[in-house]
Amino acid sequence: MKRFIDFVEENAVSLCVVILSLFATYFAIKSIAFLAPNNHFTLQADAFLHHTLAVVNPPGSLNDLAFFHNQYFVPFGPLPAILLLPFVAVFGTSVDQAWLGYVLAALSFLLVYRIAGNLHIKSRGTRLWLALSFIFGSVYISLVVLPISAFLVQVVTVFFLLLSIDEFLRKKRFFIIGLYIGLAILVRDIIGIAVIFFLYEIAFLPSIKNKIVALTKLFIPIIVCSILLFAFNYVRFGTILDNGYDHNISHGEDLLLSRKVGFFSPMHIPGNLYLMFFKAPDPVKLYDVNYVLKPPYLHVDPWGLGIFFTTPLFLYLLFLDLKEKYAKASLLTVGAMLIPTLTYYAYGVWQYGYRHAVDFYPFLFLLLIPLFRDKMPMRAKWLIIYSIVFNFSYMLSLWGVYFFHQQ
User: Fold this and answer.
1) Which of 14, 59, 301, 304 has its CA 20 to 30 A from that of 346?
2) Closest of 376, 371, 370, 404 to residue 390, by C-alpha
């Protein structure tokens, strides 16, 4: 009990920020209760229970569903639905899949806190601030709050990436690491690129035998999970590489025009770079012909918002020390994951911030965390507080909802 009291006394400010962030999350979720929530994974779990892969009872809104051979399918990996299976078996399709996101977000907060400790951040207060930054001081929180299945996919994926990093830093059991990466692939196949981080580290093991053993342990669960995903795709769409996204019936004209350039194309790189790094909030004008502004003065573009607006703590990466133990492996992994991200046609559309970057946030934080090993300066804490306030203030503005202004 004394240790707990000491912990609270030492970290009163950061704990208050945690509590206030939780309240803000609750009110943000309540503020968008008018939105019809996606429940794709509940429907997929229900389909599994009916011994089929097609949606048994399609919802009123067919957004983000794939239509193929007169049936509707969920164009995402099966793992979130598998995690929901026992609850859907008991409570039926009334299960709200959003709760899976809430639980995994809470566990991810704890994982970031523990990963910071594994990277020799001795101050428990600094670990709390870093976890706050990851969950609440970034676009990640919008993926938790907004009831959209594509966002839940990323919450689940990031959770398994954090598990793999935590396992690597603590015990380095490569079979377990491979299992976590394999499970992430069963959520979002492109995330398999993250295995590069662990391959880089395996390359520096002391002997050929150790490398072969580590590689075997790493890839066995990845291969098994990949085969399961291929089988899931093949049974539904007749080919192992079609996850259903080609049959998505909810694409608007804007995305269809982008796709004409190519699903993955170098032509998309400038647009993605602009949205990722340079896109600022837009002014709310009183008149279209000038810059006389009216409340709430700013709103965000549904195509995206630069990561330095949503997570200004990333500015500290300018002081990155490449001599840090995992810096090169992390940079290599982020660079590899950027290739499909920057060449992808669906830049955004109804997202807060640049959400595709969240896929490699765990590795960006591996670069960021050691910068605060000695002490987290007050200006860094203020940046985190600013980002939390900014994100909660503007992430719902896509629907005209602001914490500080009533439309």
Assistant:
1) 59
2) 404
